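note to self: dont lose this again. the chain is below, predicted strucutre after it. 369 aa total, dont forget to put it in the shared folder this time
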Amino acid sequence: MVRIKRVILYVNKIILVGIILLLPIFSIIGIVSLNFNSDLAPIKGPHELPALPLKDPPEGNTLLLVHGYGLSAKIHYEDTYTDPYIISFYNSVVPIDYYGDVPSSAQTYSLGRSDFDFDTPIEDIALELKNFILNPNNSALFYETIDVIGYSIGGLIIRYLIMNYYEEIKVANLTFENVLLIATPNHGAYHLNGLTNINVILFAVLGVLFCLVLLFSDEEKKMLRLVSILLCFIAMIFVNIILGSRILSVQAYQVQFGSDFLQNLNTGDETPYSVDDSPPYNDINWSTFRGQGGGDFVLERLLLFFSFINEPNDGMINVNSVPLGDGAINYGPYDRNHDEMVMFDTSIEEDRLYFNDIFYVLTGQSYPP
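---
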């Protein structure tokens, strides 16, 4: 009887060790998936064509759309480039796909770099986007005045492009007028930066200690073991946030708070060529849009509870990370999560009211009711 009890206890410990070994795998998957939505773009009803065009749309203008991390122009911008009022206002709408595995379509344009993936530095994508804009074969796509929307890291691509290549673009007689950065981690994604987040480190250390208690505590102390299981689970998540800051993709690493990329990007004027600057360096109306809707699934909420404490966020980006300094108009925070910041189904009242602000910045007009 004693031998059977020992065998059962031994088996229980093996199972617990297995659980502890598996938890890092699941937590890594969860962390990596924070900005990966493998679902297809939601199916929306067809837009009704407007009875009348917008008042006095300008001639010679383009809307350039740059999507966010891990996905595509179709998923992030289909609501935008199929909107009838957007189509009637712009001479051309150019949604860009920069990942190599997403081909061009009838409505979207690939940069054509099959080697571009999550480990392609943001700088390289910005350079390739500049080459795409200035490529003579693409001259029919781009009119004299260009408005730009960058979502999530798409906004960082746009900022780097303007900072380093805007003079070349101006030489080609192209001008950026309105630049909108939506849910862009201009100052970093805090919860990915495990090595410098004291909350993450603290909970990881405490949780590991409870993992040890879980392994070696008396089986009869069931409440202690129950608490230990919970804290052990939390610990594995945070241990892997720390590890994840070393093993995530190049782009995910670049958007961490305090990364070399962001330090270089934010050194000096955060809004170059702003309308507040002196001529001829005053072309651009900079705007940012931020959300505070929190995460939309349990793991996000658990991570953000410990990483952000009570700081508002959109489930990915802290609200204080998005705004830029002098030279930008910073909108929000809106009660929307990270994904919802680019959901513009105008048949839904809440989406239409939010999109109205973006539409007004682009066109100077309210979105038609």
